[in-house]
Task: inverse folding
């Protein structure tokens, strides 16, 4: 695995500005947002690299047959092209790699997490004119084709295998222990997809305390999304304290306490105590 080093402060600030602008666009571009996430992780990814990744998605779409038919025909065409011919799929080892969450690296390696492989499927299919969208099943992201009454689900992690109803039920039951709810099959919003990707990156970093830098930029990108959980501010504050920026972390904790106080004053008091403890570490 090629070691990934983040960009310098100026380049990082520029990528974040562009990420925030794209996230607030009327129609956010999923591939652009995913590539900007990659740019935060990989200092070697430059403007030419971003363009090359978009060109690769265009190329893959151009190799698909022209409008092959209904949802199942589209699903089959994508599986044959991306899964069989191009070799896009996942393995258990991909869960241990940061580059499995970075679109430019997934395009290069043709390996990745279910959600990133789904992004490849969606972006290639969308460019080819398919009725495609992401489906955020608990614990395993998949891709849907067609309207609800004709919906066909595929699993890009398994090379684009078409899922039967029982297959989807088993995926949900395995992740949650609960039955599949029809609401789980609704199209995922692009910004929710990006937030889920960033949550995956944070989970990867949480298992590696030496990579708190990755956790920090992932939570800071999450905070740039127009809609995000308020608790992310608390998570950022904790990371700052862990990384030795006690004053900024304390200020963030105080700010979060003010938000929480409106609904849970005892919780706000606990956060304020954490802020005092962080300041005490300056002495």
Result:
């Amino acid at each position: 695995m090629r070691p990934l080093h983040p960009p310098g402060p100026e380049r990082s600030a520029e990528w974040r500005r562009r990420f925030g602008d794209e996230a607030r666009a009327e129609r956010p571009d999923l591939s652009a947002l995913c590539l900007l996430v990659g740019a935060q992780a990989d200092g070697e990814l430059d403007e030419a690299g971003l363009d090359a990744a978009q060109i690769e998605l265009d190329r893959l779409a151009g190799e698909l047959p022209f409008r092959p038919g209904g949802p199942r025909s589209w699903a089959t065409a994508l599986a044959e092209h991306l899964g069989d011919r191009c070799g896009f799929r996942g393995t258990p080892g991909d869960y241990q790699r940061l580059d499995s969450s970075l679109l430019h690296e997934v395009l290069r390696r043709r390996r990745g997490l279910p959600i990133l492989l789904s992004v490849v499927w969606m972006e290639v299919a969308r460019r080819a004119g398919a009725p495609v969208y992401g489906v955020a099943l608990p614990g395993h992201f998949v891709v849907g084709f067609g309207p609800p009454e004709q919906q066909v689900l595929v699993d890009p992690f398994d090379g684009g295998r078409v899922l039967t109803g029982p297959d989807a039920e088993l995926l949900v039951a395995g992740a949650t222990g609960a039955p599949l709810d029809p609401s789980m099959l609704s199209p995922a919003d692009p910004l929710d997809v990006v937030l889920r990707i960033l949550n995956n990156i944070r989970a990867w970093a949480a298992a590696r305390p030496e990579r708190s830098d990755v956790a920090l930029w992932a939570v800071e990108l999450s905070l740039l999304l127009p809609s995000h959980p308020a608790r992310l501010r608390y998570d950022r504050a904790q990371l700052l304290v862990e990384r030795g920026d006690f004053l900024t972390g304390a200020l963030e904790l105080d700010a979060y306490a003010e938000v929480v106080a409106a609904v849970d004053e005892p919780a706000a008091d606990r956060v304020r105590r954490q802020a005092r403890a962080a300041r005490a570490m300056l002495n």
